[in-house]
Amino acid sequence: MKNIFFCMKQNLIRGRVFIILCFFIINVSCTGNTSSAQSTKKILLLGFDGMDPVLLDRYMKEDMLPNFKLLKEKGDFKPLVTSMPPQSPVAWSNFITGMNPGGHGIFDFIARDPQTYIPYLSTSKTTEAKKTIKIGDWLIPFSNAETLLLRKGKAFWEILQDNGIPSTVLKVPANFPPVSTEANTLSGMGTPDILGTYGTFSFYTTKDLEDEEQEIESGRLFNVKMLNNTIKTELSGPPNPFKESRERVNTELIIKVDNNNPVALIRIEDEEILLNEGEWSKWIKVSFKLAPLQKLTGICRFYLMKVHPYFELYVSPINIDPTNPNVPISTPESYSADIADEIGYYYTQGMPEDTKALNQDFINNEAYIEQSDFIINERQKMLNLEMERFSSGLLFVYFSTTDLISHMFWRYMDKEHPGYKSEEAEKYSDVIKKTYRKMDTILGAVMKRIDNDTTLIILSDHGFGPFRRYFHINRWLKDNGYLNFIDDSLSESNEFFENVDFGMTKAYSLGFNGIYLNLFGREGMGIVYDGAEKEKLIKNLISKLEDVRDPESGNQVIKKVYRREEIYSGKYVADAPDLLIGYNRGYRTSWESALGKVPEGLLGDNMKRWSGTHLWDYELVPGIILSNKKIKTVSPALYDIAPTILAEFGIKKNTDMVGEPIF
Amino acid sequence: MNFINIVFNSLFDIFFYPFRSVDSIYGLCAISLFTAIIALPIFKYTSNQEEIKRVKARIMGHILELRLFKDDIRIILSAQKNILKFNMFYLRYTLKPLMFMMIPMVVIFIHTAVRYEYRPLHPGESAIVKAKLHNPNELSIKDRELVLTASEGLSIETPPLRIDGGKETYWRIRAEREGIFKLGFQARDMEVAKRVLVSGKVARLSSETLKSGIVSSFFYPGEPSLPEGTALESVLVTYPHAKINFFGWNIHWLILFFILTLGFGFILMKPFNVRL
Known about the structure:
The structure holds 2 protein chains of 2 kinds.
Chain A: H1 2-34, E1 42-48, H2 53-61, H3 66-74, E2 76-80, H4 88-97, H5 101-104, E3 110-113, E4 118-121, E5 124-127, E6 132-135, E7 138-141, E8 146-149, H6 156-162, E9 167-172, E10 184-187, E11 201-205, E12 213-216, E13 219-223, E14 226-227, E15 230-239, E16 248-257, E17 263-268, E18 271-276, E19 279-280, E20 284-291, E21 294-300, E22 302-306, E23 312-315, E24 319-320, E25 330-331, H7 335-343, H8 355-359, H9 365-389, E26 393-399, H10 401-409, H11 422-428, H12 431-449, E27 454-459, E28 465-471, H13 473-479, E29 507-510, E30 514-517, H14 532-545, E31 558-563, H15 564-567, E32 579-583, E33 586-589, H16 591-594, E34 603-605, E35 612-613, E36 623-627, H17 641-648
Parallel strand pairs in A: 1-26, 1-27, 9-10, 9-26, 11-13, 28-33
Antiparallel strand pairs in A: 2-36, 3-4, 5-8, 6-7, 10-25, 11-23, 12-13, 14-15, 15-16, 16-17, 17-18, 19-22, 20-21, 21-24, 22-23, 27-36, 28-34, 28-35, 29-30, 30-32, 31-32
Helix pairs in contact in A: 9-12, 10-12
Chain B: H1 2-16, H2 24-46, H3 49-68, H4 73-116, E1 126-133, H5 141-144, E2 147-150, E3 154-156, E4 161-163, E5 168-175, E6 179-187, E7 190-198, E8 208-210, H6 214-219, E9 232-237, E10 244-246, E11 249-251, H7 253-268
Antiparallel strand pairs in B: 1-5, 1-9, 2-6, 3-5, 4-5, 6-7, 8-9, 10-11
């Protein structure tokens, strides 16, 4: 008996010793981490897309932005040199990689296949399943479809993570699909909707239209019939990848309206939504049956535009469901669902504010402003959620609204804008200012929560200005003999150079700031030889383009034309447009030219709601940087931010980074 | 029937009272344990335990036969036939106790459902309210026009939407603050009231209230049925579905209730000396 007690006692002692040892080891290893100089260091970065230094300074002077003003006084505020061209995917790629476009390979929103001259979106590419078996109309895939991020170079959070610094990066542009990393990341601009587009809305109307269903710019228009106050229609989903015919999968949508009151009941699957006229719905989950046991889920919001005398309903692009994404939108993959569990559904689409619907009057200013506020609110919830968990490392949160609201509401505060209407301006001239104030409130809340170990950086990728006149650059190339038509009896060429004779074309423009030479050996039907001919052509183009004047005002249209070698360095310079157009204040490439169209006329008044721009010469539209630390660099640039973040954590920058630390 | 509902509601209110402010999983565990404790003695005393023991032993014997004589197809086929036969006997012996168990089980099920199927509204949340007329064709156009009133703490966000010739009327309400509030439906000079709960706690909810009747009173015990003489057939408040988090998974309460009840049943089988 004694022996049994002795054994038990011995086991107990051994057990206790083991527990104490474990505790000691864990304690020592934890202490080892916390004693590191880097572990308590924090960097909080807020990205306000398109925040303009001139407007910011003006509003600070008007005492409209007390928190920005306080940060400027306590720390620093400077213009931030943007990328050339100053487009968001290019600029944010500079920020992410610490390189210029020659290093990360993103030169525009739009890139082209030199063999076919066909444009594609520059930041990501989706390839379909390579191996499939066909049974009737059904396709059974044996490999996965792939989505690739086309941005090259290592993201700064990858380097931080490699060095044991935890990072959370929310909604940064040019990061779809998100690069594989242990950091918590959620993809931003560049993330498609479930149709695989950058946002396709649906619009239902009982107004008579020519066709029952019409494709419109970034949307689909449905002419629906009302019978006994009921509309029976379908919500249009994506083409079915399991069907060879790629027929669209739809889900039933039933709408009931009251005889007299401006209110409608929307039934979709098991959900019922009751909306007043001029009201947004909450997020609604929808599903589309692709095949037996295969369904695709997404989320969307409804906006009831009108009930009487005719019915109009807008449905947002169907966003990827963050709780069950069909393509990767976060790292780790469960992170998008974790956020949704905490804050509810949220916009996963890269550019959620529906500027295309507003531009075509499918929603009105009020609906757009409400949507913008909703998005700001969502981002703020994400920021608050991550601030709660933020104990060390890096936290970045991106806000898109400052950019898109400036695009859509600039004309209301610019009396020289051709689209300025004084009666509307009275109502909307302060929309941009109010958005800056909302950002100021967010900043104020953040400043209250950070401690002395936190470096706070507020930045924007570029500034802003008016888009008053458009320039059909491909028409200019045609008029000056650089571009020729197949059929000269036609006065125009449609998108994607439909009527362009590349066998007789020396230069063409695609995207918002680039000109490509039709080089022999590089382009599919290239005719310009490398060497003296190319050199002569470049000099000729630069001199003539910089000489273009607006016949209405005599203003110079293009401030400066850059050769790519002049401004880019890195492995991918050869993929860049040969010339980069730096437009002057007020001017921009036309929408048509960006997609390879050659319309009639050279310059025209921009009457669209999309009335602000930043697609100018990069020196005209710097972004902003504010910090609670003094900035030593005289003229900090976007590509300096990644090296700065690394330096703050005592990490050396990569050799391919061109930027330098700014503190 | 309303009296029986009052009794059961009071009993279950007392039972669930300690669990109203904690995670739903605790209340579900408790009611599952209670169900197992109720069900086991019923099973024991209404079933033929000896016969069940005998039949189960026969099934086990034939399963052993399958293993031992796996090379003899004749014995295997015979054993399979016998397993099937004794399974049928087993089902027959369990049928009677299951019938007895069903009575308390249905009561428990209904009174658990009124607490865990839906959750109360949270302040700031909206819900659709739907009222259905019993026979609108017998009513004048004026009488079909229902009027909704809301007590302080609720606001009506939309005008009425009448569909199907006024048979159904919809509104959207919004919860302003926590509390128990009242909606009033004015139909043919008679007002019918419905309770709306705004709370962060688990509570007894009645999403739908039907016209008076034994079946409707039994299956919708959360609130008294609609009074006699009303033109209304039903009124409904679309409360949000309750989410029950079980180790990170959102599981419907019913699945969890059955799993937990079975689990507790098996655990308590021996202490209760019951052969299932």
